[in-house]
Amino acid sequence: MVPVLRLITIPISHYCEKARWALERAGMRYREEPHVQGVHRVAARRAGGGSTVPVLVTPDSAIGDSAEILAWVDERATPEQRLYPADPAARREVESLCQRFDERLGPSGRRLMYVHMLAQRRLTLRFNNQGVPPWEDRLLRRGWPLIVRLLSRALEIRPGVEVEDEAMAWGELDFVAGLLSDGRPYLCGERFGAADLTFAALSAPLVVPSVYGVALPQPELLDAPTAALVQRAREHPAGRFALQMVAEHRPLPVAPDGVAPDGPVAASS
Ligand SMILES: N[C@@H](CCC(=O)N[C@@H](CS)C(=O)NCC(=O)O)C(=O)O
């Protein structure tokens, strides 16, 4: 029997969503092991990764980086499901766009949303802790003030940082809108690929899609400034593109235990 893949996550994390999306799109069975912030470091290391999630544990190795997980999935995908072009120059272009989104859009959108969400304790706990072990849920609920301090330190949150993050995130939306302004259907080439998936997944804190590996708080539940931010991102041409990629290419999330009901088992290489 082929062991099922394990995916160590912070369930709300957009880098983890990147990995889930790629696995589910390729029809690979996996079991998600969701953890809260802080505990994720222990879980990631124990699984053989570094200090960040996602970590994908395959029969041969542990992969602790979302871009490398996409490449691993891609090597095992059917030709129609491939995320990277075969041509080396075209592949380099895709990889360079993905790296740009990983380095700029990912961190700025995440911290911007944390600044907004840490002020909404009840809502954050409800959505952040979906599926995590009960003791981790309790840990975050009881230790909330300490958790906020630790998270703020880890993310280098300081007064006014959200203004810089918003400028960076919107700069990335404008950059993508610029690429799309020539009428292209996808960021690179004529079919959906890794750049589209990476951009759409990492836009999640801004556009808050209704299809995601866990439920996300929709604008009607958010406080007015956060809802207005999401609305503005959704109306941006690149935000609309991100939501379109989700609607057209993100399979509906798998069963609650994280195992795709009918997908083929990932083959050991
Ligand atoms: N380059 C990494 C970044 C992943 C990342 O930043 N993950 C976040 C969750 S959104 C994380 O684990 N942060 C906690 C930490 O750095 O301790 C990847 O793409 O996998």
Q: How would you summarize what this structure contains?
A:
The chain is mainly α and about 270 residues long. The protein has helices spanning about 15-25, 40-45, 65-75, 90-115, 120-130, 135-140, 145-155, 160-180, 195-200, 205, 225-235, 235-250, and strands spanning about 5-10, 30-35, 55, 60-65.
Class by SSE composition: mainly alpha
User: How many separate domains?
Assistant: 2
Indicate the radius of gyration in whole angstroms.
18 Å
| Span of the ends, CA to CA | 14 Å
Helix content: 40-55%
**In this structure, how is the largest beta sheet organized?**
4 strands, mixed
Tell me which ligands are bound.
glutathione
Task: Predict the CATH topology of the largest domain.
Answer: Glutathione S-transferase Yfyf (Class Pi), Chain A, domain 2
How many β-strands, per DSSP? 4
Task: Give a written overview of the molecule.
It is a single chain. The chain is mainly alpha-helical. The protein folds into two domains: 5-81, Glutaredoxin (3-Layer(aba) Sandwich), CATH 3.40.30.10; 88-249, Glutathione S-transferase Yfyf (Class Pi), Chain A, domain 2 (Up-down Bundle). It is 54% helix and 6% strand. It contains twelve helices and four strands. It is globular, with a radius of gyration of 18 Å. Residues 256-269 have low confidence and may be disordered. The site of glutathione (GSH) has 15 residues, from helix 2, helix 3 and helix 4.
